[in-house]
Every structure is written in structure tokens, then in C-alpha cells.
Design goal:
The structure is a homodimer. By secondary structure, chain A is α+β, with helices and mostly antiparallel strands. Chain A has five helices and three strands. Chain A is elongated, with a radius of gyration of 19 Å. The structure holds a DNA duplex.
Amino acid sequence: MNNTRPNRDIYDAVADPTRRKLLRLLADVEELPLNEITVHFQMGRTAVSKHLAILKDADLVIARRVGRETRYRLNPTPLKEIQDWVSFYEGFWKERIVKLNHLLEEKK
Amino acid sequence: MNNTRPNRDIYDAVADPTRRKLLRLLADVEELPLNEITVHFQMGRTAVSKHLAILKDADLVIARRVGRETRYRLNPTPLKEIQDWVSFYEGFWKERIVKLNHLLEEKK
DNA sequence: TTGACAAGACACCAAATGGTGTTGTATTCT
DNA sequence: AGAATACAACACCATTTGGTGTCTTGTCAA
């Protein structure tokens, strides 16, 4: 698991279901330390930490050291890139529905 | 490379840049056989075929046999799931911008 | 019908992934 | 000061990934 490289691909970061669950979890709170995050998962603390490192490399999460714990916080802005990417295809599937409706019209 | 399992995770299918390039390529045309697709990539025919198989398992691509060639066509509809997922976070980054504007107001 | 071509199927390989446990180092508590 | 805590860093491992080449099958053309 590569956890040091900066600027990790955002699509890759988001591909893993554990990582998506992490984002969703952090969306509900302001900040959360690793310990508390780990509670919500089956795997060990180390594994969760690595996933968070990957999200951090993709700039989707901000880590902030507070005393002996590091608190993680969501940074949703990079997700805009994915939204932009996917919305390009939005036209295509809407076009498909229109075509389908035309076909249904003709059947009548 | 797992290329037989049906119902592959859509996020995973889209995570690879080669696969995204494939989707983009197929968005511009109606249908394209493997041979012509391969021209656009550095890698060999087998590799491209595998990527297409993965997209097919994610239902993002439809393969249709015509004579001795198989023509591939884009099926954009499953991408709606990703759009739904990402649009949940849209509120968060917009909220961020609002907060930022408030901060700038206070500075004045 | 024989030869050329398209592409799927398969075996193979190096590298990346996702997990584990252990060790080291700040930091807090008593 | 000393014990306990939080977590990063590291070594390790099995599985998956993304590519390669070869073989085989089906189809078109001469």
C-alpha cells in the first residue's frame, strides 16, 4: 500500500469502499481522532491509518496533530473533479432516456 | 486481472485512467471494434481487451459480436450511481465556500 | 478450401494493494 | 519520574492488478 506519495489519484482514492465509508463518516462530524474512527471498522488501527494516509495524499482529508492524537477532517473540494468528470456523461444517459421514450411513442 | 466476475464495482472500474480514456473514446462514436480501439493506446491488444472486459463486467460497455470482430459501445447509465454518490458531498464544498466568504467579510 | 485476420482464453510475471504484527516516539496522567 | 496512551513507521505476507506472449477458434476473402 503506497502511503507516502503525494498527489495520489483521486479516483483511485475513492475506489475503495472502506475509503468511501471513511469519507462518509467524516462528513457527519467536525473532526475525529484515529482511535474513534477505528471503532467503526472491522480491521485494525494500522490498516485504517493507511487508508486515511491515502485519502490525505489525495487531499480528501486533513490531518491535524492535537497532543498525542491526530484528528482527521473531511476536505470535500477535490471531489469536484469527479463530479465534473461524471457530469460530462450525464448528457449521454439522458439522451438515452429520450431515445427510449421515442421508441415507446412509435410502439403506440 | 479479474475479467470474468460479473457485477464488478463501478468505482473500481472507473478508477483506472486507461479505462476512463476508453469510456471517453467510446463516447465519441457509436461503436468501435477492439482493433481500432487498440490503436489509441500504447499497450497491446490483450491488455485493452481485458480493460474492456472489466468495463463490461461493470456494465459500462456493451460488447456486440459482428462477424469476426466484436464492437464495443458505451453504456453510460451506471455512472449515475457515481454522480449520486458525489453529489451528496456537493453541499459540503459549497458550504465551505460560503464559510470562506464569511471570513473574508469579517476581515473587511 | 486454404490462408489471413479478429479476438477470446490461457499461462505467466513484476509490481501494487490491503491487510497483519512490532517497534519507536511523543504526549498525557499519576 | 515513570507508566500508559496515541499513532506513525517499518517489516512482512497473500492476493490482486496490469501488463506480456502464445494458442485456438471463428469468420472473411481469394
